[in-house]
Structures are given as C-alpha cells and as structure tokens.
Amino acid sequence: MSFLFKKSTKQVTRLFFSTDVHGSERTYRKFINAGKFYQANVLIMGGDISGKLLIPIIKDKNGNFRATLQGTTEHYATEADLSGLVERLATLGFYHKIMEEDEFKALQAQPAEIDKLFHQLARERLSAWVDLAETRLTGTGIKCFVTGGNDDDPEILEAIHREGTQSFFACENKVAQIDENHTMISLGYSTPTPWKTPREVTDAELGSMIEDMVKNVTDLHSCIFNFHDPPVDSTLDTCPTLDWNTDPPQPITQAGQMVMHGAGSKSVRMAIETYQPMLGLHGHIHESQGMAKIGRTTCVNPGSEYGEGMLRGCLINISAGVVESYQMTKG
C-alpha cells in the first residue's frame, strides 16, 4: 500500500511504530532515524527496550582476551581487536564488561552483584538512547514516545523517565497528546510467560490497569491503545505452544508440526472491542507481524528481528480519528 507521497487536503499525522528492540544499538539508531527517513511526525516505541544478556570479556594474565558468545569461546590478542566483538554484542542487544580473571571468578559467586552490574549497564544504555533522541530530534518537530515492555525491569526503566526533554517522552500510564486531535495510552505489562519476566500480571490485573487509564481519555474514538500485549486470537499473537514443564520450554508438536496458539491478552481484546479506539499498537510476539481489524479498530504488530540489526516497523497515517492508511516496513 503506497502512500508516502500521496497528496491530501486533510490534516494528516504520520506515525512510525516499532517495538521489541531488546537493547539492540543498531536497531534503535535506525528507529530514531526513521522519523526523517519516512517523513514521520511521531515515533512510537512499544516496549521491550532493554537487553537480555551480559557478556563478560575476560582479560587473561598473558594480556589476551576471551569471551563466550552463543556457545562459542572467541579469543582476541589485544583490546584493540575487540572492536568487532563489541559492535556485534551491541547489535544483538547484549551488554559487556571487560574484567580480569579474578574479578570474573568473584562475580560468578555473587548472583546479586551480577544483577546489579546488569542493571547498571542497561540503565547506561537507555540513558544514552535518551541523549541520542534528544540530539537527533530536537528542533525537527518529531516527537518520540517510548514505553517499556514485560522484559524491562522497573529499575532499569527509570533511565527513560527524564524531566525537561524536548523530543523524547516516556509515555507509560499517561495520556500522551500525539497531535491536536489524537491521544495515546500505553501499557507495557503482559500476561504470564514461561520465562517469568519482570513485568507480568494476570489477565484480570491487566484489564484493571487498562480500565484505570481509559477513565482519563476524553475521546476514545480518536485514541491510540499502545499496549505491548496483543489481543488474544487476533493473528497478531500467534506463536508455538510451549511445554512449560521443560527447561527451557520446548515447542509442542503433533504429527511433526508445531502446535500454534494465540498467546495474547483477553483483557486487551475486550478493551478494544468495548471502546473501539482508532488504533491498536502491539508487539511482544516477534514472529506475528500483521494487521487485524477488531470492529473499527486497526491493530498492528510489526514483529521484530532486532538480533539481526533489522528494524521492523509500521507507517500509519491518521486523520480526524481515522486510520487513513498503513504500510509495514523492514530495513
């Protein structure tokens, strides 16, 4: 659906929505640049913004370095040789720390210190991302709205809540003014997963959170529901059914085929069916890119390929409480 250069007499706002970058430096930088590239007025990041792993880079007594990445131990002669590895880790969304062998062994014996270091590095990256957005976007007129997801620890998310920003806005649990005619409410929590992520609640609790936000919206017809968890059985939430009794959980197969199911939220779907907002923005299920209509509401999940440094997104034109057009992107 081509609309990027379509002329219109209507007052149109162009959104670029992406989600689930999981700490990937390359993917996030593409996201910030997408406003100018796609001539979008508003950037929206829908959650799961922090990374998942901390990779120690160990300095041996002989001055060499080693790191174990995805089951393979790699060796480097000098610190200068590490640049390629560090860039790869950043693209994957991983954090790293160079340390002596003794420090590494001491850290291994202290899980609480590992968590502390992980949180510190994650906050530093998110803080740098706020700085990048402010540097690149201030003066352009482009607004950037960001929320956390279920994978994002509340302590880590503190880094995006900064006062006095000009272009970057943490928007969770707020009614954000997108333009003169449209608002957005955002929620990053999800229903329970096999991985017991930091921000999971029951579906009923998720529904209560949504109801608390909806009360503050004056015009639901022109509102965007930016909810990380997709509506159940909407095709935006389709993923393999997992056996939760194995570690790690394994896909269940029948007749040689993976059993698929809708892993989204009943409460999210009920809220959309009840209030019929203009637009639903969702993520969480990386492999379920698509669009679905629930009544009048256009719902999208752009999917995610963050580990390859690939930015998946959706360009959406809105005007007077209506989604005029949309287009999935990848690059």
Summarize the structure in words.
With about 325 residues, this protein is of the alpha/beta class. The chain folds into 2 domains: about 15-50 and about 125-330, Purple Acid Phosphatase, chain A, domain 2 (4-Layer Sandwich); about 55-115, no CATH class. Helices cover about 25% and strands about 30% of the residues. α1 (about 25-40) links the parallel β1 (about 15-20) and β2. α1 packs parallel to α4 (about 110-135). It starts with 12 loop residues before the first strand and ends with a strand. The model has no long low-confidence stretch (mean pLDDT about 95).
CATH class of the largest domain: Alpha Beta
CATH level-3 fold name of the largest domain: Purple Acid Phosphatase, chain A, domain 2
Strand-pairing-aware structural class: alpha/beta
Q: Note the beta-strand portion.
A: 25-35%
The order of strands across the largest sheet is 8-7-2-1-21-22
Mean pLDDT across every amino acid position: 95
N-to-C CA distance: 17 Å
What characterizes the major β-sheet?
Answer: 6 strands, mixed
Q: Give start-end ranges of low-pLDDT stretches.
A: none
- How many helices? The count is 7
Measured on Cα atoms, how large is the radius of gyration?
21 Å
Name the overall outline.
Answer: globular
CATH superfamily of the largest domain: Metallo-dependent phosphatases
